[in-house]
């Protein structure tokens, strides 16, 4: 009975999340576009997403579906102009992270623009990653210089614990180009939760501990004098160890 109730709750939460995304996309963002000066719009968009996803994170905790444990929540809340690279075990990792990190954005595939529910959100505040490399570096550099944090899942897709996957080098490329620090974050859960090919309703019969471990920052200055190719490899080796 407990498992059935939890399954119903998580399904309700996703309906609630989709409704909220629609309100933001079709009403709140257009209102911001009409009323907020151009130079302040991206910060306003980011604040709406941060606040709403923080609310959703807290709501999941309030109804006792999950409990988010973070070893350094204050540090995440004060990041500025950093690249956050994180492991990606669950469907809502990005929601949890943006709920913890103000002024943040993330990478999105061009295909996500085809989703009518999220089109306006992606267009307004996310960075499209499958574009020309030089345009990609220029776009990410602009966000970082403005003080935004860029969240990246280097696996590119959800992975299971201890699964050996190839990491994409985008975070290292951005870091070396923009001279921005990389903050690795390891995400784990104590129960398989919204994993790849796992039914949404499979949420167990107890509170799931969602652990967010913030690691030591990787500084691009430490790779001065090293060729870009070698520096990228060394950075990615550290990231693989950390997450």
What keyword list fits this structure?
243 residues, alpha/beta, 14% strand
Describe this structure in words.
- This protein has a single domain, classed as 3-Layer(aba) Sandwich (Glycerol-3-phosphate (1)-acyltransferase), CATH 3.40.1130.
- Helix 5 (119-125) links the parallel strand 3 (104-108) and strand 4 (127-128).
- It has 8 helices and 7 strands; from the N terminus they run ααβαβαβαβαβαββα.
- The protein has a 7-stranded mixed sheet, sandwiched between helices.
- Helices cover 48% and strands 14% of the residues.
- The radius of gyration is 18 Å and the shape is globular.
- The longest helix has 34 residues, at 2-35.
- With 243 residues, the protein is of the alpha/beta class.
Short description:
This protein has 243 residues and is α/β, with parallel strands linked by helices. It has helices at residues 2-35, 38-62, 73-77, 93-100, 119-125, 133-145, 170-178, 228-242; strands at 66-70, 83-86, 104-108, 127-128, 149-152, 182-189, 208-214. The protein has one domain (2-242): Glycerol-3-phosphate (1)-acyltransferase.
User: Would you list the SSEs in sequence order as H and E?
Assistant: HHEHEHEHEHEHEEH
Report the count of strand segments.
7
Shape: globular
- Secondary-structure arrangement, i.e. CATH architecture: 3-Layer(aba) Sandwich
Structural class label: alpha/beta
What is the number of domains?
A: 1
Strand order in space, largest sheet = 1-7-6-2-5-3-4
- If helices are DSSP runs of H or I spanning 4 or more residues, what is the number of helices? 8
